[in-house]
Specification:
This protein has 13 helices and 23 strands. With 552 residues, it is α/β, with parallel strands linked by helices. It folds into 3 domains: 115 residues, no CATH class; 269 residues, Rossmann fold; 77 residues, Macroglobulin (MG2) domain (Immunoglobulin-like, Sandwich).
Length: 552
């Protein structure tokens, strides 16, 4: 069975995907000047973001801004009317991937007043690549009949059993996997529990929208098994109770920059539907056309489009994991994009003894930033291999999902922590945090330490949930706050602000068990945040302002 995402607010971005019909067509990235003409408004985010995506921003105090607005349909329509095929559009980077066989048209497009630049991302003459994208080695082995099978080492090396034993196995966390294909995930036994509990929430193929991702490359299937595989006594992944979006962004038959742009729009979709974690076991430096390849100086954590997209995903409240790369033995050696991203957790590969795998890419990022960030098992990782049976494989492609699954468990265990806090906790729990290097970064994380760090350093447990009550919600012209004395302090600072962080009301109140905020009809309708601050503590409530409720 193939799952498809049906989301009204994403239709605008993807309803114009077309296929070349006559002459071979080249692909181009068209960077747009602004978003003039968009029918969307920052004040009405429910028109272009899911409630889950809005709630993620609210929880982490992330404002909704212009980067969240879809690309202007006026500009896209103008490009289409001139004869271009719109493949997809990126709201974060404000541009579109287009196709055409007419080079003269492209020259004209580059002179349009709303276009700032045009770049070739895949030529029409592209042939099957000789570039070896995935360098994993498959090593058949017997299965240990323990509860987690031979995957137990991947878990215990990270002290992930500490969280699993407490019941934190990723339940309620949504993970988007961006990869090259998910061969037979709809059939293989290790994914039975995902299918039976409907935890494959959606799929999309950004390379060929007409394809069946379950008939594409095996790589994403193996990656998924590291996190969500659940075959008791044989294999249990690091977040077997999580839910997943499966997105194909990598064209394994060729290597061109268009795949980076596929990645960005997939990350945007992951954000829009409300995903909490992104795992990407992909990296880009060298392309089939050497003129398109990245320079070393571009791997500085913020330059390539894919890295900009990965950094933006993190700023939108998503925890982003990416394999460091398999370039340790190549002339390149260093981490690839987007692993170089300043907000990305780049994961190196080690064996079960914590020894770095020789193929694992090294750092630092250009400019000296610590890369990779941390390490996990990518040497003799136990998973579902390319033939659909349990197997051992080598590759940083697998260290990343092993760690991403644990990141999901840590998010579940610390629901009020921000992604910045989660990332910092993972790094600070690393085995060599006090002396990071260019091989393993901060080392192998300890998720017991990370969890305890978060419990001590975030506001997860500051406020009794059941004591303070705020009503009505939705509200129209007043709000009643009761039991407010559960926050200690001589006075209270009460603030109402919108999702962009703009203060709409702010007042100080002396100690009282009940406070009434009245005459609020002037506030804008929609989602608002109510903050109650006292004694260094800050409790927040998501409110809905409407005209349909009145004071009684």
């Amino acid at each position: 069975m193939k799952y498809k995402i049906v989301l009204a607010f994403t239709i605008l971005l993807f309803d114009s995907v077309l296929f070349a019909q006559n002459l071979p067509k080249s692909s181009y990235w068209v960077k747009l000047k602004d978003k003039t003409g968009t029918p969307y408004q920052i004040s009405r985010p429910e028109n272009f973001l899911s409630q889950r995506a809005i709630s993620r921003r609210v929880k982490q105090n992330i404002p909704i801004d212009e980067t969240d607005l879809p690309v202007s349909p006026v500009y896209l329509d103008s490009l289409k009317k001139r004869g271009l095929e719109i493949v997809h559009a990126s709201k974060w980077l404000n541009g579109a991937t287009v196709r055409t066989a007419d080079t003269a048209l492209i020259r004209k497009i580059s002179t349009l007043p709303f276009v700032t630049s045009v770049q070739l991302t895949k030529p029409s003459s592209a042939t099957k690549s000789t570039f070896l994208k995935f360098r994993e080695e498959e090593l058949l082995a017997d299965i240990n009949p323990a509860n987690y099978g031979n995957a137990i080492n991947q878990l215990t090396q990270l002290k992930g059993d500490y969280l699993h034993n407490k019941g934190f196995r990723g339940k309620g966390i949504q993970i988007a996997i961006l990869d090259a294909g998910f061969w037979h995930v709809n059939q293989i036994a290790a994914f039975d529990s995902l299918r039976k509990s409907n935890r494959i929430l959606g799929t999309r193929d950004f390379v060929d929208p007409s394809s069946d991702i379950y008939q594409q490359h095996t790589h994403g299937m193996s990656v998924l098994s590291c996190i969500g595989g659940n075959q008791p006594l044989s294999l249990i992944g690091t977040a077997p109770d999580a839910a997943f979006y499966l997105f194909r962004t990598e064209d394994s038959a060729s290597e061109y920059p268009i795949e980076e742009d596929n990645w960005v729009v997939a990350a945007e979709l992951a954000d829009s539907v409300g995903a909490d974690v992104i795992n990407s076991s992909l990296g880009y430096t060298v392309f089939d056309d050497p003129k398109m390849s990245h320079k070393d100086s571009e791997l500085n954590g913020k330059t390539t489009r894919i890295t900009q997209g990965a950094n933006m995903a993190f700023r939108k409240g998503i925890l982003v994991f990416n394999s460091a790369g398999n370039e340790g033995k190549s002339t390149w050696k260093r981490v690839n994009a987007p692993a170089d991203g300043e907000n990305v957790i780049a994961v190196a590969a080690v064996d079960k003894n914590g020894i770095r795998a020789s193929f694992s890419s090294v750092g630092p990022a250009y400019g000296g930033a610590v890369k990779p960030n941390v390490a996990a098992m990518g040497s003799l990782t136990f998973l579902v291999g390319s033939t659909g049976v349990l197997d051992y494989l080598n590759g940083t492609s697998f260290s990343s999902p092993v760690l991403a699954g644990m990141g999901a468990c840590l998010l579940q265990a610390n629901p009020n922590a921000s992604v910045k806090q989660i990332k910092l906790a993972i790094e600070q729990s690393g085995s060599i945090f006090n002396k990071p290097d260019s091989l393993l970064g901060y080392g192998i994380p300890d998720f017991e330490k990370a969890d305890k760090y978060l419990k001590l350093n975030t506001n997860n447990n500051l406020y009794p949930k059941s004591l303070i009550t705020v009503s009505p919600n939705p509200f129209s012209d007043f709000i009643s706050i009761k039991n407010i004395d559960t926050i200690s302090g001589d006075y209270y600072l009460i603030t109402i602000y919108n999702l962009q962080g703009i203060c709409l009301l702010q007042s100080y109140f002396n100690y009282s068990e009940t406070i009434i905020l009245d005459n609020l009809s002037y506030l804008p309708n929609g989602f608002l945040i109510l903050s109650i601050r006292s004694g260094g503590k800050d409790q927040r409530f998501k409110m809905i302002k409407t005209s349909n409720y009145s004071k009684k």
